[in-house]
Design brief:
This protein is mainly alpha-helical. It has one domain. It is about 80% helix and about 0% strand. It has 15 helices and no strands. α3 runs parallel beside α10, α7 packs antiparallel against α10 and α10 runs antiparallel to α12.
Length: about 280
């Protein structure tokens, strides 16, 4: 379905009163623009490649065939973190410490940063490309347009997170096989991080960045202003996730509930405040 077909197509409301056929049209348009834009693709892929490909490869090489004494470092860690690691054979401790625990909080940076990059292009990018006026004249309800723009950031962020973790787990298990002699990823706690926390972090970042994108004139301004807001979230994610993993599944799940609640509040407020008249006034 093309933009032109929206003019003659009768509305078909779905869940929540959203016209999902219209949302798919706008979403497909936005995803196509992301794929064609090197300015968006390169920042989206740089961090995942470093964190999810190069890091497990380097850790596996460092641990492979070498006797690395990390017990002194492990003993400096909080008891709750040190005890599970010291329960493994000495030659496995480096792999377990870094890839089993320490990478988890860093992993949440991926969906947050990808959603920030894509969301900065939602409306600011349309202004920069001089396509926002055309978009606002489409026979699409304000809510449908806003939902499509949100999904245009959420889908890539979640996809990069999930595909990135598959690569991370595959590379980590393969490179570390000579040390571990077993598959050690994914774990149940990692599954919670990937399937529950990562999408919540993406939605939270979008709730902030889409509203920033509505108020600025180009993607560079959106990324600069949004970065000042998102950076504290990055620090918070890095600082708290390891503790959540050690606390167990229930606290981790409840933390995700809190993130989803805040993200939902931000995005609902954003949808209610969005009108095409307001956006047209900023052209």
């Amino acid at each position: 379905m093309t933009d032109a077909e929206l003019v003659v197509r009768p509305p078909s409301r779905g869940l929540g009163g959203i016209d999902w056929a219209v949302v798919r049209v706008v979403l497909g348009r936005d995803l196509g623009a992301i794929v064609r834009s090197k300015a968006l693709i390169l920042p989206m892929l740089f961090l995942p490649v470093v964190l999810l490909v190069l890091l497990p490869t380097s850790i596996g090489i460092a641990a492979n065939g070498k006797s690395l004494d990390i017990d002194r470092f492990v003993n400096m860690l909080p008891t709750a973190l040190a005890e599970p690691i010291l329960g493994y054979p000495q030659h496995e401790r480096l792999v377990i410490l870094v890839l089993g625990y320490l990478v988890a909080p860093l992993f949440l940076i991926v969906p947050l940063m990808v959603s920030a990059v894509t969301a900065s292009d939602t409306f600011a990018g349309e202004k920069e490309r001089k396509t926002l006026e055309t978009l606002l004249h489409l026979p699409v309800r304000d809510r449908d347009l806003y939902v499509a723009k949100l999904l245009g950031g959420f889908v890539p962020a979640t996809a990069v997170s999930w595909i990135g973790f598959v690569l991370f787990a595959t590379i980590a298990n393969a490179v570390c096989w000579p040390v571990m002699h077993r598959l050690f990823l994914p774990t149940w706690m990692w599954a919670l991080v990937i399937l529950w926390l990562a999408p919540a972090v993406s939605a939270l970042g979008l709730g902030i960045m889409v509203r920033v994108s509505m108020r600025v004139n180009n993607t560079q301004e959106a990324q600069q202003l949004g970065g000042a807001v998102v950076l504290p979230l990055v620090i918070l994610a890095v600082g708290q996730t390891t503790g959540l993993l050690l606390a167990g599944p229930l606290p981790t799940f409840l933390a995700g509930v809190g993130l989803w609640a805040v993200a939902g509040w931000l995005n609902i407020r954003g949808a209610r405040s969005f009108t095409r008249d307001t956006m047209a006034a900023r052209l």
